[in-house]
Amino acid sequence: MSQFRESPLPLFQTAAPAPAPQRAAKQPSYIRDHRKRLRERFLNGGADALPDYELLELVLFRAIPRQDVKPLARRLLDTFGDFNRTLSAPIPRLREVSGVGDAVICELKVVEAAAHRLSRARVMQRHVVSSWEALLNYCHTTMAHRDTEQFRVLYLDRKNVLIADEAQAQGTVDHVPVYPREVVKRALELNASALILVHNHPSGDPTPSQADIDMTQQIHLAAQTLGLTLHDHLIIGKSREVSFRSEGLL
């Protein structure tokens, strides 16, 4: 009879120990101290106490919690020019900047949306004449730094209270299609009595073109036919605006 040996088997199979969970990298003390000082300066002195790159750093802190964000803030400003243009930059262009991902884009766009809503709240359901400066600030906030043309119509009631602000059309860098019949038709739907037209010039120069003048006259005539008042047409540039009413073009 042949003999054989059985290899002894353990009574219990011991599982391999699970790898220890990796700890998140600790924030270096110099970054932590810098962020603390920056927050204190902002809280004590407000936004005016900080240059653009430091204000941008504050926005980036939440998106990138454990790294020095100053180099990224500088890259963004070098690319887009200033704080406002960085916030309003199109998402595809932001993605082209090294170090910018979804978290950074989200933080930037949340701040931009908050600024738009705050400035809009200061003009909606307000008398336009008594809140004209707030209206101009709102138009600059929402339109001055766009890289394509946008045409908006502000609809007012009989007391010149702003009841609606609507983007009618989006265009290219130097053209936006506008349809006068659609503008006045929407006024009737809203039961509006007056209009203010607003569009931007991405070039930064708000000087009206002949096409701007012709389009304004067409809307003016269409509005008059239906008993609507066209108060003004504002062209928003980078740092100033042009009023057709003030320039004698309306």
TrEMBL record:
GO BP annotations listed: proteolysis
Region of interest (Disordered), residue spans: 1-30
One Gene Ontology molecular-function label: metallopeptidase activity
CDD domains: MPN_DUF2466
UniProt xrefs under Pfam families: RadC, UPF0758_N
SUPFAM superfamilies: JAB1/MPN domain (SSF102712), RuvA domain 2-like (SSF47781)
Residue ranges of every copy of the MPN domain listed in the record: 128-250
Low complexity bias (residue ranges): 8-28
Keywords (A to Z) from UniProt: Hydrolase, Metal-binding, Metalloprotease, Protease, Zinc
Family membership noted in the UniProt record: Belongs to the UPF0758 family.
PANTHER family: DNA REPAIR PROTEIN RADC (PTHR30471), UPF0758 PROTEIN YEES-RELATED (PTHR30471:SF3)
Name of the protein described by the UniProt record: DNA repair protein RadC
Organism: Thalassovita mediterranea
Source species taxonomy: Bacteria, Pseudomonadati, Pseudomonadota, Alphaproteobacteria, Rhodobacterales
